[in-house]
């Protein structure tokens, strides 16, 4: 895939969803990063990151258009502090060198969506939570379907780890970037966590 071409086409398609707005007064800078599970688009300004999504996922155009509309901003390819920081941290994540992220985020959801997304950030690396458990964590135990919808609308993949939420029966559930990708990410994190646990365990060979 020609990633730059795909990104530019995505911007153009997102632009056509902007309710007739021809020019927005603000500009967000954007870039991409190739990863073992596909190219990722990142967009933000010098203060915060607004978007991080897999370029080929079907909801990427809609999420890009929504961010542009909410911020009254267009996207252009180029560097910014948040984009550069996110690209570096995501690379470190896939290299197995990073488990938490420090890139400042600006989440543009509803009050409920932001609550769900903030709670997602508390799920530890290599662990999972069910949609029902996540609903209980935000004190809305009957809202597990709404929680699942908020997960699907998350504009900041991996850094806001919606891939760590699964069904109560242990099945994967949904993932807007694809279940194969979700399975890979969960297996990757579990393997890295298990390797670290094994390395940190005391060597008891020869102990009485």
Explain this structure:
It is a single chain. The chain has 208 residues and is α/β, with parallel strands linked by helices. 42% of the residues lie in helices and 13% in strands. It is built from 7 helices and 6 strands, in the order H-E-E-E-H-E-H-H-E-H-H-E-H. Strands 3-2-1-4 form a 4-stranded mixed sheet, sandwiched between helices. Strands 5-6 form a two-stranded parallel ribbon. Strand 1 (26-33) and strand 2 form a beta hairpin. Helix 1 (3-15) packs across helix 2. It is globular and about 55 Å long. The chain starts with a helix and ends in an 8-residue tail after the last helix. The relative contact order is 0.13. The mean pLDDT is 88.
- Uncertain runs are none
Mean pLDDT: 88
Number of strands: 6
Q: Which radius of gyration do the C-alpha atoms yield?
A: 18 Å
Quaternary structure: single chain
The side-by-side strand order for the widest beta sheet comes to 3-2-1-4
